[in-house]
Amino acid sequence: MSAQFDVKAVIDGVPSRTFPAVANGVSIAMIALGVVAFLAGWFGIGDGGAVAWGAFLVGLVYTLALGQGGVMFSVLMSGTWGRWGRPLKRIAESFAFFLPVAYVALLVFLLFGLKIYPWNPSTIIEGGPVDLHPHSADVIASKPFWLTPWFFRIRLLGTVGFMLTLDFVYLRAALAPDLLMAKLRLGARAPQWWDRIIGGRTDVDATTIACQNQQSFLMPFLGWTFALVMSFVAFDLVMSLSPMWAANMFGAWTAVSGFWLTLATIGFTTMLAKDWLGISPWGTPNVTHDLGKLMLAGTMFWAYTGFAQILPIWYTDMPEETNFLLIRLFLPEWTWLAQTVGIMCFVAPFTILLSRGIKKMRWPFLGLCALIMCGIFLERTLLVMPSIYFHDPRNPLVVFTSIGTWLGFVGAFIQVVGRALASMPALVVSDPNLETHPWDVHVHALDHGHGH
């Protein structure tokens, strides 16, 4: 329990807290917009629904990365004994509540959306289906089997399902001590769903120790699973849209940039909702400063690994590899989007995050997080859409379908995460690492009496 602030107020605020009417209305409107945009793309563009399913895929990989990234932030804090991010740990864990929704969306896509892949015998893409061994059948003879629709579906549902199972075993261990501590204080006012997490436990201290040990045991398995499964997701769902193109670093680049997206979303949610959640005393400028430094590392990783993929493709100059980049970087229909992504995902955040002050100011930091969140959406769009739509993407209906469908996924994410946060303590109230370590020193620049 924090020595500086009393967490009892955080617990006492749970029974009276409701999902804000504004957030509820806006998110419902976003979901409705997403449905309309998807249907407009399906019936209005005349491409057999390719753009609609492409936009659906962008929203799916975007929100799946958010949900899984929330789990991995919690794992990171627990595994490193990190105290600085403990006030953000529960917000990150709340993102995982969207994972079942993302899994259902994945199932829908695998059942009905695979026609956007040119390797699918039933593809709706112009010029398909493609021959998967045009150059050397001996070298890539396994590709036709790997990209068989039935094996594709089983592989993704199985690997993602396994990852989500580990996630929720870990999440239950992370939540149980806090919900038990809160239930003992609130009594009958505690939500009934907490009992399924608590599981008959009655001793807070014993539960805390046992659950922390369980989290420690699961952490390496979660790390390995995250790296492998999210790489499979990147290779299968995104890279195979261009089945002749390959980049070994693509899986790591996509998985880690998804975690970077999660960091920005954690910052955005904290800055926007900390008063509603009653965690303002913990959501201090020092916390956002530390989060901003990790986001700066994510910015540099995104740029470095992106360049590390482009460089060998450039100097080997093999047609099956360069085509992917030429379309996105030099074709007039797409080059403007590539330049926008470069600015929003590297130039702007890297420059802004060099400032110590901005990382400590609430609304500028929130705006920066929003910039990164939008930048990653455009980056995912750039990866997906040129492989399935071969006309000018500035067509208003294509733009509406892409942005509207993504906003529909974001609206569903807000609904699930917002209601989860409304019904449980927004802090890890039983975690002994919530309090500041007595040796902790946070360096401040001399400002001659003017605070950040």
Distance between the termini: 28 Å
Extract low-pLDDT stretches. 445-452
Query: H/E order of the elements?
Result: HHHHHHHHHHHHHHH
Number of structurally distinct domains: 1
Biggest sheet, in brief?
Answer: none
Instruction: Tell me, briefly, the overall form.
Output: globular
Question: What Rg, in angstroms, do the CA atoms define?
Answer: 23 Å
Helix percentage? 55-70%
Strand segment tally: 0
Helix tally?
A: 15
Average residue-wise pLDDT: 92
Describe the structure.
The protein has 452 residues and is mainly alpha-helical. The chain is built from 15 helices and no strands. The chain has helices at residues 8-12, 21-44, 50-79, 86-95, 99-112, 143-146, 149-186, 194-198, 204-238, 250-277, 285-316, 319-330, 332-353, 362-384, 396-422.
List keywords for this structure.
disordered C terminus, mainly alpha, 0% strand, 452 residues
Topology:
Blueprint: H1 8-12, H2 21-44, H3 50-79, H4 86-95, H5 99-112, H6 143-146, H7 149-186, H8 194-198, H9 204-238, H10 250-277, H11 285-316, H12 319-330, H13 332-353, H14 362-384, H15 396-422
Outline:
The chain has 15 helices and no strands. The protein is mainly alpha-helical.
